[in-house]
Amino acid sequence: MTRGFNLRGTFAIFTFELMRAFRTFFQSIFAPVLTTSLYFIVFGAAIGGKMSSVGGVSYGAYIIPGLLLLTLLGETTSNASFGIYMPRFTGTIYELLSAPVGVAETLMGFVGAAAVKSLILAAIILVTASFFVDYHIAHPILALGYVVLVAAAFALFGFALGIWADGFEKLGIVPMLILQPLTFLGGTFYSIDMLPDPWRRVALANPIVYLVNGLRWTFTGKSDVNIWASLALTLGFLALCAGAIAWMFKTGWRLRS
Amino acid sequence: MEPILEISGLTKRYADGPVALDGVDLTIGKGEIFALLGPNGAGKTTLIGAVCGLVRPSEGTIRAFGMDLAKDWRSARRRIGLVPQEMATDMFSKVIDTVSYSRGLFGLPASPARIEEILRSLMLWDKRDSQIRHLSGGMKRRVLIAKALAHDPELLFLDEPTAGVDVELRRDMWRQIGAMRAAGTTIILTTHYIEEAEEMADRVGVIDKGRLLLVEDKATLMARMGSVEAVITLEAPLADVPARLAAYPLTLSDDGLKLTYRGHGGATEAKAEVAHLVQALVEARMGFSALDTRQSSLEDIFVDLVEQGV
Questions:
Q1: B19-29, strands of its sheet edge to edge
Q2: In total, how many domains does chain A have?
Q3: Which residue, of A52, A189, B259, B261, has the greatest Cβ tally within 10 A?
């Protein structure tokens, strides 16, 4: 029915986006898995073998949540941003704008597909990690929930980015020049407690620190920051992105002339 | 005729640009083919965009199927289809996937039988598993039509449906459009090809600089504003137009062997006047060996209207 929520429209967008990802299997799935495997080999096996454990957790297992987020943030943002940018670029967005789908259906379709792709990717990465490192997840349900939350938040962020960008360069700038450096500096490979002041205090201004430690807590039960702060920041970021997208649809900014 | 689309005072004013639509009023009847004519930048695509949700109107109201598009947009859009001017589709998708996607997007349940019917009607069934990028230009345009028909719209917009396609394909498209109308679809098309409007439209509208200059039944318009040119080849040369024929709008060629009649103000009246002229020539015993007549096309009328700005 299209008088109310267009569920079939949502499902159409969702499946079409997933099919797009599977068409580009090597770029969407294989490349990130290969990159993450190389991180495990270099940091986990080569360097990790020479490092003592961190907070009672082997170094290899310690970096798994950070590496997972490193891939998750970049891929989710890129997937979602390309998902909406390409229709804008090629002109196929006319169909979406002329269809009986509103912001809710559009977001659930695009963002849901991007988030699901990321969850599939996360599962593959965890399986891949088990070939290199022995690890166990302290709170598996919470870990799954947090990954879903982060994937949804960054899929929304990517979607907003895809509407904002007016060229491929802008589309690549945010994941490569902002997200990736912040993630590297966000305690992916180390505990920020290892940093001397003032760098530790500087690191606490990096929002990615809270995301990495939130996920790390679900894996190891240990965190450098208050996990409630991690949760609040993730939810706040999600709400901020959702609000920005709602505004974009309401005003038609960069969508409707 | 029962109105299916009612546009009132529609204005689109860009923040830093010209007025794309300037107080357009237009009513489209159910089941008709309406051709919107106008030069580049006249406002044709903007008008379509405003109805289909691609353009945000600055002022005015649009009602489709009796519903206000600003309020009941979900219900109204479900019944409207659009074939865009640009070849905009996901080139890496298979034909059948992209058409099925369009049906789902508009909230309809999957219907392989209906999709097959549409693809067969557009001669795309054999290409259903081909990626769109591998199709010819004409077939790509048919895919866009198939996507627009996937949700069985009652009101279909065709924005320059035959732009850039060869003559044979254009005629094929006209047949397709005729078949859609026969199936009960109301069609609004924009075109640069006046012969397209002349061939298919029931009514025509002429738009320029965002203003709708006129809307009229095609046959009435051509009868009212059409002209007739008749060239009479005489058996013996004349020095001047005879006095008894002075009442007719005639010119004589330099060699005195051709009389040219140019009648304006309606093709029907002009044709009758040509008949009277021939009768006058016979009564005056002025022999002639040939009579060639040409009626003005919709294109001539369109050019006149745009030049005059009516």
A1: B19-29, B3-13, B59-64, B67-68
A2: 1
A3: B259
CB pair distance less than 8 Å for A100 and B106: yes
Question: Which residues in A lie closer than 8 A to residue B47 (C-beta atoms)?
Answer: none
Q: Which residues of A touch B52 (CB under 8 A)?
A: 94, 97-98
Residue B84: asked if its preceding bond is cis (omega within 30°), the reply is no
Q: Are B172 and B166 in contact (CB under 8 A)?
A: no
Question: What's the Cα-to-Cα distance from B127 to each of A95, A224, B93, B151, rounded to whole Å?
Answer: 22, 58, 12, 20
Among the partner-chain residues B56, B77, B86, the one whose CB lies closest to the CB of A98 is B77
For position B166, what pLDDT does the model report? 72
ipTM: 0.85
Does some domain include residue A235? yes
Domains annotated for chain B, with CATH where assigned, are: 3-222 (3.40.50.300), 226-308 (3.30.70)
Cβ contact (<8 Å) for A2 and B74?
Answer: yes
CA of residue B262 relative to chain centroid, distance: 27
Which domain does A124 fall in, by range?
7-45+54-251
Q: Is B293 helix (H, G, I), strand (E, B) or coil?
A: strand
Per-residue pLDDT tens for B113-143?
Answer: 999 999 998 889 999 999 999 998 888 988 9
Q: How far is B135 from chain A (nearest CA, A)?
A: 17
Q: What is the dihedral of CA B110, B71, A94, B15, to 10 degrees?
A: -170
Residue A126 located in a structural domain: yes
Task: Please say if the pLDDT value at position A44 is more than 80.
Answer: no
Strand pairing report for B288-295 and B228-234 = antiparallel
| Residue A242 · residue A156 · CB < 8 Å | yes
Residue B53 to residue A98, Cβ atoms within 8 A: yes
| A1 found inside a domain | no
Q: Does A180 map to a domain?
A: yes
For B:134-173, CB contacts with A below 8 A are: 147
| Coil, helix or strand at residue A93 | helix
